Amino acid sequence: MFRSLVFITFISVYLLSLHCSDAAYYIHAIEDDAKEISEHVGKSDSNIREEETLFDFTNENFTEDEVSLWGESSDTVREPGKSKGTFVLQKSKLFQRAIFFALLNPQPNGAGFVGVYTNTTNMEQFSTKTGFKIKCRGQGMMKYWKIVLRYREESGEYSKGSYEAKFELNTENLDFEYISIPFHQFKAYYRGALIIDAPPLEIAQVQTFGFQVYGGVYDMYKQAGAGALELDYVQLY
User: Fold this and answer.
1) Which residue in 64, 131, 216, 226 has a CA-CA distance of 20 to 30 Å to 37?
2) Alpha helix locations (H) across 101-221?
């Protein structure tokens, strides 16, 4: 069930535009502080599947109940914010996957974001891992996205800052891509600004995992409009 009528038109156009392609897959990663995007060698789906899975959105056990555990966190928490996002499950007779739909309306300087997130537990089991791998596809007007991670303070409240890593998707050829992001590329941020001299990410301390699309207020590029992030799975390597 869609959570907002603002997405009806976009989703209709999006679904009509879906098509398959046999082009090669690629892996892209972006280093947050340098804003430099690097391309990696494509890997087969069987190789990716050998890694430990955090979320498998293609599994029939991932149902609407699991989708309901994902919440929205967008710029409307601030007075000038006017963006909107929703996280849904797409199911057909042939496949299922999750989709993060976003309508990004940033300020003229690029300030603005749309995000979705869910709580995580027992992340200490991944302490020996070195990064995230995602199978996904981007469509629409935005090609720059983030993974956003948060800790929980001793008081029980979630930390005000977050650890983030950006990545770029090719929205022109519509192929699914494999994104590889090492933990060391995650940097600490507060309201989009880099926190200087923050300690490195400790994956065992992570309490929330999320995706975000952003306007680019602190970046060399800007983006806005409607877009979708299709997700098959998130794994750790």
Assistant:
1) 226
2) none
